[in-house]
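Long-time lurker, finally posting.

We've been working with Cyclic nucleotide-binding protein (Bradyrhizobium nanningense) and I want a structural starting point before designing mutants. I don't trust myself to interpret raw outputs, so I'm hoping someone here can both generate the structure tokens and explain anything notable. Sequence follows.
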Amino acid sequence: MMDHATSVGNLLLTALPPADLALLAPHLRKVVIERDSVLVRAGDRIEHLFFPLSGAIAAITELPNGQTVATAIIGHEGAVGLTSSLGAPASPATAVVRISGTALQISRAQFLAAQHRSPAIASMVQVFMMSLLIQLQQVAACNALHSVEARLARTLLHLHDRANGGDALPLTQETLSELLGVRRTTVTHVVSTLRASRALKSHRRGQLEIDRPRLEALACECYKVMRREIDRIVSRGATGLVHGAPARGTFPLPSSRRAGTSS
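Top reply, 14 upvotes:
Generated this for you. Predicted structure of Cyclic nucleotide-binding protein:
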């Protein structure tokens, strides 16, 4: 039961004019997205969309040989499952929660019904797809041209941007291997290198504590390019959605529940 009012914490939803947000609000449920839970697997039909309020979700692509790599990291600036609103009901990637948080969940059918009634919601989808395309293009170039050390620094910064506070990130070497698409032995070497440069303060089991200024110095330029371009697209898109006026969407949210299945 909805028992309190909470301001929208997702940038895409916040940008919607109140009347358009009201089309979605009755169907949005606040859920807990737990670390390592799978929101949708590649090739599966998308049944629900998720608009993160906090935490970080990685879009993982798996090759035929079983090797994986993260092609995008999504937080409160984006959504999971929006590709289904473009007529592709199957998920192109596996969405795995890498930093726990909360999200607003809505069924695909309910979202599509609202989208068909709202040009602003349809435009919101386009805004997100543009920002996602920027990530996909930049990550592809980065993976091809830059060192594993620079790529790891970039990935840790993207995750830290979406973390719930503090400099300790709940990441194992197995997770880093999955995100970067490299062997665990390579991850071990790179983590040691970053520790030697003091970009990583400590490396306890299942947790990395970062020194952000040093990490930024070691990251490739892709981090700043992606952050700047995504911020620009989302900000410009938000301005267009509300016709130059800031959105003030506020609506009651239910108590949190769990989302996804364990990987």
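Before you design anything, note these points.
The chain has nine helices and 14 strands.
Residues 4-146+243-262 form a domain with the Jelly Rolls fold (CATH 2.60.120.10).
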